[in-house]
Amino acid sequence: MDSRGWPRFGACGSAGGSAEDTRDEVSGVRPCMPRRPERVGPYRVLGVLGEGGMGVVYLAERGTTRVAVKCLRTAPGAGARRRFEAEAFVQSALSHPNVVRVLDGDTGPEPYLVLELVEGPSLLALCSALGARGLRLPIDACLYVAERAARALAHAHALEDEHGRSLEIVHRDVSPSNLLLTREGSVKLTDFGLVRHRDRDWATTAGLALGKIGYMPPELLRGGEVDARADVYALGVVLWECLTGRVLVPRRSLFEAAERVVQGQHPAPSTWRPRVPTEVDALVARAISIDPDARPSAAGLASALCLARRGRGRRTLERAVRGEGGAAC
Q1: Which positions are tagged coiled coil (predicted)?
Q2: N or C: which end of the chain has fewer CB within 10 A?
Q3: CA 54 to CA 70: how far, in whole Å?
Q4: CA–CA separation, 208 vs 221, rounded Å?
Q5: Which of 140, 173, 191, 281 is catalytic?
Q6: Which residues contact 261 (CB under 8 A, 6 or more apart)?
Q7: Residue 236 has pLDDT above 80, yes or no
Q8: Ordered alpha helix ranges (H), the chain
Q9: DSSP for 114-133?
Q10: Which sign, positive or negative, has the C-alpha torsion 290, 282, 329, 239?
Q11: How confident is the model at residue 212 (pLDDT cuts 50, 70, 90)?
C-alpha cells in the first residue's frame, strides 16, 4: 500500500497473480498439480517454470535445444481439455515476433504444448522487482511494451481462415504475467489458455467468467458478450498499472472489484505520475472506457502508442530487464 491506501502494482500477487500463484480467486484453494515427470514425449524435463489453474509449464530440452513444455494437470476435465486444444490451435496459427511460438505438441491422452523458451521475466515480475527497489519502469519503456503487445493482439484479431473469414480471436487473459520480456528488449504475448475464436467458443459456461477480474471488461461482468475490444481494455489496464506502479482495481473482495470495474471511474495515470503526457492519459482513458465502442482497435492503439513514444523505449526496456535502469517513484 502507498500512503493513501492504494495497492502497489505487483505486490503480493495483487496485479492478478504471478505464474506461481495458483490459488483459485474464489475458493483460495490451490489445484492439485501432477508430480514432475522425467520426460514429456521426447523432451527431458529439467525443472518447473510456472504453475497455473490448468496445468504446469516445465523447462525441458531435446538434444541441445531448451524449450518450455505446457502440460495439463492430472485428469483434466472436459472443459480444460477443450481450452487446451483451442490454445494449441490458435497459438500454432499465429506467426508474429511478439507472440510466443509453438514448436511442437500432442493433443493425445496426455496432451502437451511445446513453446519457444523466453529467457527473461514477465512484465509483472519486472515491475515487482523495480518496485522493491523504489523504482518504476520508465515511461517510454511502458509505452513500448504496450505497443508491442497491441501489435501481437492486432495480428491475432486479424487472423482469417482459408476462405478469408475472420476467426474472431479474443485472447481474454491479457495481463502483466502473460507478457514476457527478453534481455534484448523483445516483448512476447503468451498463454492463450482462455482464448475464444469463432469455431471454438468453448471456454465459458453460461454465467461463468474466466480470467483475472482486474483485467475483465465491464461488459463481461454485466453478463454481455466480449470481442476483440475486451483485449484492448485489458491492455489499457496493463498500461495504466505499468505507468503508475499501482493496481487499477484493488481486490479487497470480488464484489468490490467487480463494482469498481463496472463503474469505470479511474484516475488518469498522471495523477500518480505527473510526467505522463496528456496524450497518453487520453489514450489510456479510451482503452479502458466502459463503452466498448469508444475503445480503439488493437492496431489503432499500437499506432497511437508508437507516435507517443517517439521511437524510444526498447533500449530503456533492455536496461531495465538487465537490472541497469528504472525511474524513481
Answers
A1: none
A2: N
A3: 10
A4: 10
A5: 173
A6: 213, 214, 216, 217, 218, 221, 249
A7: yes
A8: 78-93, 123-132, 139-157, 218-221, 228-244, 254-263, 278-287, 298-309, 314-321
A9: EEE---S-BHHHHHHHHHHT
A10: positive
A11: confident
Residue 100: band (very low, low, confident or very high) from pLDDT cuts 50, 70, 90: very high
Question: Which of 69, 312, 50 is closest to 185 using CA atoms?
Answer: 312
Looking at residue 75, its pLDDT comes to: 61
Q: What is the pLDDT of residue 326?
A: 79
Our answer to whether residue 227 is catalytic in this structure is: no
Question: Among 92-106, 129-143, 188-202, where is mean pLDDT lowest?
Answer: 188-202
Are 151 and 98 within 8 A, CB to CB? yes
**What is the reported pLDDT for 31?**
43
Q: What is the pTM of this model?
A: 0.86
Residue 109, CA atoms < 13 Å, CB-side half-sphere:
0
- The pLDDT of residue 34 is 54
Q: What is the DSSP string of 146-214?
A: HHHHHHHHHHHHT-B-TTS-B---B-----GGGEEE-TTS-EEE---TT-BBTTB--S--TT---S-GG
For residue 328, what pLDDT is reported? 73
pLDDT at res. 201: 54
What is the distance between the alpha carbons of residues 282 and 270, in angstroms, rounded to a whole number?
A: 10
Residue 266 DSSP symbol: -
Separation of alpha carbons 328 and 138, rounded Å: 9
70 in a known ligand binding site: yes
Rounded Cα distance between 148 and 150, Å, is 5
Contact 174, 123 (CB under 8 A): no
- Which domains are assigned to the chain? 13-116 (3.30.200.20), 123-328 (1.10.510.10)
pLDDT of residue 209: 52
